[in-house]
Specification:
This protein has three helices and 15 strands. It has about 300 residues and is α+β, with helices and mostly antiparallel strands. The strands form four sheets. A four-stranded antiparallel beta sheet has the order 3-2-5-6, with no helix packed on it. Strands 8, 11, 14 and 15 form a four-stranded mixed beta sheet that branches. The longest helix has about 35 residues. About 25% of the residues lie in helices and about 25% in strands.
Length: about 300
């Protein structure tokens, strides 16, 4: 892309950004235009990186610079898309005694996920029934409202669940209900968190009983096929040393399951485990880890799926 064209894109972006902030509909349209500009710019950046790679090789600093610019541009385009979707939503209207939280739930590819349950939980991980619950629509949108904010004691935490009460997401950022307030949350599910999960028929997939926690899921290859015979280790992330809660193998089409008890992780400070897992092949090589996507304060039943290979 020529410098003149790139400058024109930047000037147009800045001009639109100055104008953003009017009516929500206009704001959404302008944000979408900015996103389109960013996507168009990405093609030019990729072509230039390819040209520089052929000329100088992959290790050249200019190639690394363009790779970083492409990554930054993609992140901006993603944020613009999320903000445009938010701008198109009608903000709930509440009176001085009311309060609301609303938002969108999307998968790792930023596609809306319908049919999920969204609810509020207290600091003891108990559902706040007074707040009710919401279900995501075809746009992944949800809204929870209360007319009497005095019935809610903060802090509260949003959770996303399947119809079988399997926890897919726990928001670590607390909500404090205040009269007349409206909160928005954009929730992106971690890789492997699925709204629709095949039923488990193995006796190794129990329901969590009092004092027990269950983690289960499936390991698949790049084609989506289950992989048996792999070792799956479950860990509790700790401040100094991570504790291994258990180890098992995939079977029956790549499925695995753990059951662990409170005494395996609970201490004077920790009430719930912050879990992640590793998938290891028979040679001891780590094929996958979810350590960068820790499930903080894991629920009674957590599903963590893993995809290996490219």
């Amino acid at each position: 892309m020529s410098k003149q064209k790139e400058t024109a894109f930047e000037d147009f972006s800045r001009e639109l950004e100055k104008r953003v902030g009017g009516a929500d509909k206009l704001r959404a349209e302008e944000l979408e235009q900015l996103g389109a500009i960013r996507r168009a710019k990405e093609s030019g950046l990729k072509r230039e990186r390819e040209r520089l790679t052929q000329k100088h090789g992959e290790a050249h600093p200019l190639v690394a610079e363009f790779s970083a610019r492409i990554e930054t541009n993609a992140a901006i385009a993603r944020d613009l898309g999320l903000e445009a979707a938010r701008a198109r939503v009608e903000v709930p209207r509440v009176d001085a005694k009311g309060w609301a939280v609303h938002g969108h739930v999307r998968d790792e590819d930023l596609k809306p996920v319908a049919g999920l349950t969204v609810a509020l939980y207290d600091s003891r991980a108990s559902w706040v029934e007074a707040a009710g619950f919401a279900c995501t629509d075809d746009e992944g949108y949800f809204r929870i409202e209360t007319r009497e904010v005095g019935t809610l004691d903060g802090p509260l935490f949003l959770r996303v669940l399947t119809g079988q009460a399997v926890h897919l997401f726990s928001d670590p950022n607390p909500l404090t209900p205040l009269g007349g307030g409206v909160e928005y949350r954009a929730i992106v599910l971690a890789e492997g968190a699925q709204a629709c999960t095949p039923p488990f028929s193995s006796p190794r997939d129990p329901v969590a009983r009092p004092g027990e926690w269950v983690v289960r899921g499936r390991v698949t290859n790049a084609k989506g096929e289950g992989v048996d015979g792999l070792t799956v280790s479950l860990f509790d992330k700790d401040l100094f040393f991570d504790d291994r809660l258990g180890q098992t193998e995939t079977e029956g089409g790549g499925y695995y399951s753990f059951t662990y008890r409170a005494e395996d992780f609970r201490d004077l400070i920790e009430r719930k485990a912050d879990i992640y897992l590793k998938v290891i092949d028979p040679n001891g090589e780590t094929l996958y880890t979810s350590k960068e996507k820790i499930r903080y304060e894991a629920g009674r039943v957590e599903i963590v799926n893993a995809r290996i290979g490219k």
